[in-house]
Amino acid sequence: MNKLTLIGTPLGNIEDISIRILKALFSFDVILAEDTRNFIKLRNILAERFPELIKNLELDIDHKPELISYREQNHNRVVSHILKLIEEGKKIGLISDAGMPTISDPGFKLVEEVLRNRFEVDVIPGPTAIETALSISGLPTDRFTLLGFLPREKGKIKKLISQNIHNTVVVYESPYRVVKTLEIISELLPSVKVSACNDLTKKFQKAYRGNIKDVLSQLKNEKKIVGEWVIVLAQV
Asked: Of 124, 156, 190, which one is at a domain's C-terminal end?
């Protein structure tokens, strides 16, 4: 069947890999990746860590698919080539740098284009930062809104948060702006509850929980703030 397959990859802990994902990464003809170097690194780690499993699944540990860099910036340049490969019946997988492609990720443009051209889209699910952060937040998860990365302007941040805080809100933030963003939100909602998560699934996973001012205090005591953050907010 002529289709594109979305492939989830581990957020950080390589042991979160699934059998289906492993089979795809070591058998597909073409892999579309945000950064092809990250795919090569992932494949090499898998080959080193799970050689017997790969052998038992009758996969070729030395398999090297065609690699195509797919990013929002080059969508228009590469989409026609990708569609041609799908039409030829190639097994094509789309991965992001970590987690599920198309979730707060430009891959949705490719999915839209594939469907518009009457091809199929399949998925091999993997973990997402959203569900992982929500599950350990201690905040309501029955209704939530993902806002992704917030705008830079203070007024736009406050407007977006105030429009959505009737649900639990999930946002992504860089290490350079996580404190500033929480400071802006605290001006708007000084008693909002927060869970700020970092290095999800990794050895040094962190989750700072509590009133927003308490979480800010904990973050400011960090010697160095690194890695992307997932912030969960709720008025409870």
From this structure: 124
Q: What token pair was written down for 11? A: 């957020």
Residue spans of the chain under pLDDT 50: none
Contact 162, 131 (CB under 8 A): no
> The pTM is what?
0.90
- The pLDDT, as a whole number, for residue 84 is 97
N-terminal to C-terminal alpha carbon distance within the chain: 48
**CATH label of the domain that carries residue 188:** 3.30.950.10
